[in-house]
């Protein structure tokens, strides 16, 4: 029987792989408190940088750079929160799923998203583990709930998906449940929603132009509200998830 090795200063090896035993926040840099993502229990990561330790073996900076293996997302964890809360693993490999297999999981993905909406929530930049999400964290978590990993950020998700349409006028004929709808400027995608049916999509939006949380809006309803109208004006494209993310493929 192999003994479980828990992450600590003593077991720290640059480049080694680990699996989380707790939920944890991911930050923008070693000196920033800006939340950029969250990782849930069971997610795997690689240590990318050495610990900053003084001559007395004390941490100078309580951060370590990691790469989340499911989506290649790079962020910084607090090492104090990782200590004894991650188990060493020898390897990790993404699951291969066909487009047909993914399609069969869409009903469960949509059910998860609707259940998340019913839970008290608000918009949280970087939110990924719930109940508070940002737009792309919500969509990523919806697919992850059914074992399908997609990239973390909205612009990455747009690039990853198979394009369905760039034209909103013909979109209604092409959308199917589970498609992703992307919004933003002509330069960059900044928002994403998950299509339910008939042009209605569920998304987590912020305070300034949104609902401050998870809500359902429509693209084609004749009486679009202020928020739905805003996002319709920001439409960029629609895409379809046809595979699990594979490391290095973005």
TrEMBL record:
NlpC/P60 domain ranges (all copies): 103-242
InterPro entries per the UniProt record, alphabetical: NLP_P60_dom, Papain-like_cys_pep_sf, Peptidase_C40
GO molecular function, one term: cysteine-type peptidase activity
A GO BP entry: proteolysis
PROSITE patterns, A to Z: NLPC_P60 (PS51935)
Keyword hit for DNA-binding: no
UniProt xrefs under Pfam families: NLPC_P60
Keyword Disulfide bond: no
Stretches of the chain forming a coiled coil according to its record: none
Entry keyword set: Hydrolase, Protease, Thiol protease
PANTHER family per record: MUREIN DD-ENDOPEPTIDASE MEPH-RELATED
Similarity annotation: Belongs to the peptidase C40 family.
Protein name: NlpC/P60 family protein
Organism of this sequence: Prochlorococcus marinus XMU1408
């Amino acid at each position: 029987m192999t003994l479980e090795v828990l992450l600590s200063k003593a077991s720290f090896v640059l480049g080694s792989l680990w699996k989380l035993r707790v939920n944890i926040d991911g930050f923008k840099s070693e000196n920033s408190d800006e939340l950029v993502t969250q990782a849930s229990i069971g997610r795997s990561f690689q240590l990318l940088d050495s610990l900053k330790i003084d001559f007395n073996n004390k941490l100078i900076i309580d951060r370590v750079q990691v790469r989340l293996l499911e989506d290649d997302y790079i962020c910084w964890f607090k090492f104090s929160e990782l200590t004894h809360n991650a188990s060493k693993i020898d390897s990790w490999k993404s699951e291969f799923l066909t487009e047909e297999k993914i399609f069969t999981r869409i009903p469960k993905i949509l059910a998860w998203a609707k259940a998340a909406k019913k839970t008290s929530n608000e918009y949280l930049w970087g939110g990924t583990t719930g109940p508070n999400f940002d737009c792309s964290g919500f969509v990523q978590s919806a697919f992850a709930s059914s074992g399908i990993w997609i990239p973390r950020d909205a612009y990455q998700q747009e690039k990853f998906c198979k394009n369905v349409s760039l034209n909103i006028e013909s979109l209604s004929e092409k959308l199917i449940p589970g498609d992703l709808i992307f919004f933003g400027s002509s330069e960059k995608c900044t928002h994403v929603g998950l299509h339910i049916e008939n042009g209605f999509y569920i998304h987590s939006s912020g305070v300034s132009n949104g609902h401050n949380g998870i809500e359902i809006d429509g693209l084609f309803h004749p009486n679009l509200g202020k928020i739905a109208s805003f996002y319709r004006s920001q439409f960029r494209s629609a895409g379809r998830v046809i595979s699990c993310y594979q490391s290095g493929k973005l």
